[in-house]
Structure formats: C-alpha cells, structure tokens
Amino acid sequence: MQNYEFQEAMRKLTMPELQRLTIEEFKAAEKLPIVVVLDNIRSQNNTGSVFRTADAFRLQGVYLCGITATPPHREIHKTALGATESVDWHYMPTTLQAVGELRASGYTVLAVEQTLGSILLPDYQPLTGEKIAIIFGNEVNGIEEEVLPHVQGCIEIPQFGTKHSINVSVAVGIVIWDLFGKINNFQNI
Known about the structure:
The protein is α/β, with parallel strands linked by helices. The protein has 7 helices and 7 strands. Strands 3-2-1-6-4-7-5 form a 7-stranded parallel beta sheet, with helices on both faces.
C-alpha cells in the first residue's frame, strides 16, 4: 500500500463543497451519450439503484421494459433517492420495441450478456461521439433470447468466481464507470 501525505485532515465534504446540481441544472447539463435499457427487471430496488447510477454519471436516460416497474413506486424511490426526478426515463412494453426505437434514433445497441462472441468489457472501446444503448437483463434469465439477434454486439464483464453472475445494479455500475472513463479519458473528471 502506498503512503500518501494529506494536506488536510480527512473529513467528509460538506453539501456546498459537493457542488451538487439542482434538478434544473442537471436537466440542462450535457449528458453522457448512453442510455441504459432494463429488460424485465424484477426488483424495484435494482431499478432505483440504476436511476442513481444514471444520475451520478449524467446519462441520457433509462428505458424500463416489460415487467420492470416504473416510477412512482415506493421501492424504486427507496434506492433512487430522488434520481427519478432528474433522469429521463421511458417505458416500453417490450425490450425489442426499445431496441427498434433506439436503433432508429442512431444508437449502437449493446447487450451485457455472456454469449458466444461477446467482447470482454476491458476490450470494448466506444467510438468518438457514438451514442450507446446498453441492455441489462432480468436477474434470473438475463436478456431475452429474442432480443439478442437485434443488438449490434454483446459486452461481458470478466468474472473469476464460481457464480459467473453479478447483481444487475452492480453490473450497471461497473459498465457505466468503465464507459465513462473511456469516453472521457478521465480528463474531465
């Protein structure tokens, strides 16, 4: 472990020091050109967590598909902590409909799924200026089989344990953090 010299004693930042955006400032701010698509997510807590991640990285929005619950919902709000007010979201009856709409709008649609031919997340490099829609699947069944032929690629999070499965809200955080860094080259943080 490295030794670091700290100029100031460690303390939590105050609210003014955090420089949080208001909802209006968030809505007007430039967004990361990424949309998260939730394919039949059962847990409203997972959905709320995805809203928080979408807010944290200023994503374009979230698509809620199939059985995925929509705001206002008590369990979503419990984990979203108000992010449903800042993040744009859309409901689509099926994920396939969302894929069609997003592709027609110029998005590259990718699935996060373990498939033949999937690209490991560290090896995926978004193109400059590319608009990306990323699909995350159901907690038990993953992404619907009928959706996979309509995506433009699959990304896989490398895993080294016995389960080869990560909670969907955690997977969203991992993928978005990785893409945020690649898109910004960590220069604008």
